[in-house]
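Pipeline run #58 for the internal structure catalog. This entry was flagged by the ingest filter as a single-chain record with no existing model, so it goes straight to prediction. Upstream metadata was stripped on purpose; only the residue string is passed forward. Reviewer on rotation: M.T. Logging verbosity set to normal.
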Amino acid sequence: MSQFPRRDYSGPPRKPPVAPMPAANSAWEGQAGWYDQYQGQGGADLYQSVLLPAVLKRLATRKGQRVLDVGSGQGVLCRALAHLSVDTFGVEASPSLIEAAQKRAGPHERYVLGDVRDLSSVLPGQAFDHAAALMVLQDLDPIGPVMAGVAKMLTPGGRFVVALTHPCFRQPKRSTWGWDDDRRQQYRRIDGYLSMYQTRIATHPGAQPGSPEAALQTISTHRPISAYLEAFGAAGLGVVGCDELTNPRRGTKGHRFAAEDLAAKEIPLFLVLTAVRLR
């Protein structure tokens, strides 16, 4: 399961720590309660205003189709698709998130506990018209088996829509906003891009110090865009669409507001890639 929001950090370029990946069924299990409350029935505000509309548009589903939700969490995307009379199948590694999804599930929703890096074992013999991974792949390693598993289950021409934090502009602990007093411009500082790395990040950065939420962490994997494109291609998936999405959130209208607003409109923090099964 993915995490959101993320904390940015400004500092000199350095080699980030590499932490071992948690077990597939435990990465988000310890914080499932908080995450379920954060997302709620229809998703947090950025999901509703930015991510879900972009993913649903790219999926372009029709009534009665079958869609696989990779890393479905507590079912935000599945519920949005179910409202369109699309049959959804969510695969999630956290038992508590699966339970939360099942409690809200309608007749078009199904949820399965399992590792999305081994989809053939989780959903043997299944086929889907389309698939999606919403804010998930940056929390998984390796991603090759995920791509291969999805491709195997898609019908020819089926779409796989992937939404990520933007690898160019939102690297965990290597990117932040900055302010240039001379130019009176806000800019995005990037301290590295091409090197793949993993690092622990705070899942709930706004939590009060000392609270249980403040200790919640997960592991994020940064990859350059080329790594995702190569993984798509190796699985027999061809990229046919790309959306770069900005954050509509704005602060108070202080003296920097115009510059901050311009930067927020110009620098995307989310990336949506759409691929189709080629063979």
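catalog note: The two ends are 28 Å apart (CA to CA).
catalog note: The longest strand covers residues 154-165.
status: ready for reviewer M.T.
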